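Subject: for your reference before the review

Hello V.,

The reviewers asked for a structural picture of the protein, and I figured it would be easier to keep everything in one thread rather than splitting it across files. Below is the amino acid sequence we used in the manuscript, unchanged from the supplementary table.
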Amino acid sequence: MSEQEGKRKLGKGFWIILAVVVLVVMAGTAAGVYFLLAPNMAQERELPIYQVPLETFTVNLKDNNYRRFLRTYITVETSEKKVIKEMTEKQYKIKDTINSVLAAKNAGDLEDRDRLKEELIAAINSHLTEGEVVGLYFEQFIIQ
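And here is what came back from the structure prediction:
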């Protein structure tokens, strides 16, 4: 009987060691898969982009010697759906701010459109509390 008891103890130890080895291999495999595929998953899972078209803006420019005006049609982008609702509720404030920013410019200030976009995005975001506008596009931009 002593031989059988010895085999049983060896059998239990074997199964415990085997279980630990299997768990370590599974954990290593899971970690390897995570670190190899996690960067790719993050790139595939991009945030949705929502476009919010604004109406056409026509403003007189601040040129001293000329009567010039700007007509532009602006669309903004956001990655949060709740910003659309907030922009709709605060539409009058946002339009007034855009008109004020554009009317304070002269024709020379409008040459750097990227800077103008950044300024308009900052002005719009100053009214938003639920999120932010991440992009702004001029669909029409006429100076006359």
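For the response letter, the relevant points are probably these. The mean pLDDT is 85. The longest strand covers residues 50-60.

Happy to draft the paragraph if you're swamped.

O.
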